[in-house]
Amino acid sequence: MGQMAELAGKRILLGLTGGIAAYKAADLARALIKEGADVQVVMTEAAIRFISPVSLQALTGKPVYTSMWDDRIGNGMAHIELSRDRDLMVVAPATADFIAKLVHGAADDLLATLCVARECPLMVAPAMNRQMWENPATRRNVNQLRDDGIIIEGPASGDQACGEIGMGRMSEPAQIVDSIVSWFQPKLLAGARILVTAGPTFEPIDAVRGITNLSSGRMGYAIARAARDAGAHVTLVSGRTGLATPTNVSVVNIVTAQEMHDAVMERIAQTDILFAVAAVADYRVKNRQQHKIKKTHQGLQLEFEPNPDILEAVATQDNPPFCVGFAAESRDVEAYATEKRRRKKIPLIAANLVQEALGSDENELILVDDEGTHRLPRSSKLDQARRLIRHVTRLYKPARKPVASPR
Fold this sequence. Notes:
Elements: E1 11-16, H1 24-34, E2 38-43, H2 53-60, H3 78-84, E3 88-94, H4 96-104, H5 110-117, E4 122-126, H6 130-134, H7 136-147, E5 151-152, E6 156-159, E7 165-169, H8 173-184, E8 193-198, E9 203-204, E10 210-211, H9 218-229, E11 233-238, E12 250-253, H10 257-267, E13 273-276, E14 283-285, E15 304-306, H11 310-315, E16 322-329, H12 333-344, E17 348-353, H13 354-357, E18 362-369, E19 372-380, H14 381-395
Parallel strand pairs: 1-2, 1-3, 3-4, 4-5, 8-11, 8-13, 11-12, 13-16, 16-17
Antiparallel strand pairs: 6-7, 9-10, 14-15, 17-18, 18-19
């Protein structure tokens, strides 16, 4: 089934100002459209010196506007009409000069006037030389925009067009899209403290060898992202994966099951909801060797001892957080998941077929709670994570009310 279009039906006004990062706006527009958004582009006169309006028009299928006096708007009020049907305005790149204009409510061109006259929220992605970003005036201006309720995305650190390295680069299009998608999600878990375990553990045999499993960590990382998008404060305790940590998520990298146990228990008193998604080794090597075991013609015997059961250790506390367990089974999924939930004494467990889930971008989940069994049809792991978050919010009773969706 693939991943759903995360921005389906959303109407975004994309503003471009005059910076070298304007070339990235083509990829940004394409990515927004791929996610289902309706994109209307407005450019400043300086922006068209870096990228042609024709390019943006070809990508969006809509005329690009650059002037307040554009006669294609019937009533002559482009500075008002272009933003009236938009759900969000995004200025990327946003130069130091344009940020200063926003602070003072300047309205000397079409894009600036649209920002002043808008009725929808505004996100800006700063893009400038590192000295300009570090200039006290720029820092004051950015702080003022935050105080005014404007969303600041980035900037990032890295190579710059001037040949220097430092903060000031515009966030990459994928990151900006991620922030936009996150902003649109209902804040069902606003303020909740979420702990997610993800990925495999690795149990050493000697200095170079070990025992692990095929968990990719994708489901746990998707849940961390979905919980973040739902307004939660998220900590991710992760085994070794090749995945990028979602932005605005705290990560604790571990290797062994014991290290994961210790990291979880250290933080559990400050946790409202635990998602125990990681594929934790049940056993570790008891006769682990400090140095590499040399090859011989004789067999090798390994002795194992149990690892601590992290979910059990949390669920049996006097005042445990709301616990969501995971069960990856090779057969009889529903029966094993039901028995595991009963044995662990947890309110909810999510289960799937291990041969379908491991290493895949999609899966099918079976949720088991006090009300019975709920099947989530096969779809992307991020889509499943969002559905799981919605199900959890119906069961979890927070002390505070969630913030309404910004939509």
